[in-house]
Write a structure and sequence with these properties.
It is globular, with a radius of gyration of 18 Å. The chain has six helices and no strands. The chain has helices at residues 3-24, 31-56, 62-83, 97-121, 130-147, 153-179. With 185 residues, the protein is mainly α. The termini are far apart. It has a single domain, classed as Four Helix Bundle (Hemerythrin (Met), subunit A) (Up-down Bundle), CATH 1.20.120.1760. The longest helix is centred in the last third of the chain and has 27 residues, at 153-179.
């Protein structure tokens, strides 16, 4: 197993510690929000590092092409869900349920659409788009600014949701295009 894949696995292993910090964050344990921020920041940086290492060392593997997006999805979804469950003031640091539902719905649609395309076509040609990458970036930034209690954190949330919806539409459009390809008989 190469270094990039090990970093992706580390990112997955950080998730339970991040969730625990958020869920145990409360009165008398305010420091846990900063520990969660540090863990999430480390995980976010590791996302950039593992991809960079894989490309620079020409070690892009099939395992890595699966592990990296899985690690991203688990990290982002667990963070959105955890941050929607915060029970301490300031409550404005709680991510609204509609935002969590939007993020999860997009990912479920992408997975289900991929499965449908694979079963119908026997092949899957959907590659990450710039909208998908921007969505991941804004979702991660949203989590970071919520944890940091940044004054304008809601602006980041709205941008993340906008990109989430736009990338969902883009993936649906590109998937539909694949399914509508005609074949010469």
């Amino acid at each position: 197993m190469n270094l990039a894949n090990k970093i992706s696995i580390l990112r997955i292993l950080l998730i339970p510690f991040f969730i625990a910090c958020i869920l145990y964050y409360g009165e008398g344990r305010e420091y846990l929000r900063f520990v969660a921020l540090g863990i999430f920041l480390l995980a976010t940086i590791s996302d950039a590092v593992d991809g960079g290492i894989a490309r620079l060392k020409h070690q892009v593997t099939e395992l890595g092409m699966v592990l990296d997006p899985i690690a991203d999805k688990f990290l982002i979804i667990s963070a959105f869900i955890s941050l929607s469950m915060i029970k301490i003031v300031p409550e404005n640091l709680r991510i609204p349920a509609w935002a969590v539902l939007t993020v999860i719905s997009r990912d479920v649609m992408i997975v289900l659409g991929s499965v449908v395309i694979y079963f119908i076509k026997g092949d899957l040609k959907i590659r990450p788009s710039w909208l998908g990458k921007a969505t991941t970036l804004f979702q991660m930034l949203t989590i970071l600014v919520f944890l940091a209690a940044f004054k304008y954190h809601r602006l980041f949330l709205y941008l993340a949701i906008l990109f989430t919806v736009l990338s969902a539409i883009d993936y649906i459009w590109r998937g539909s295009k694949q399914l509508n390809e005609t074949h010469k008989i």
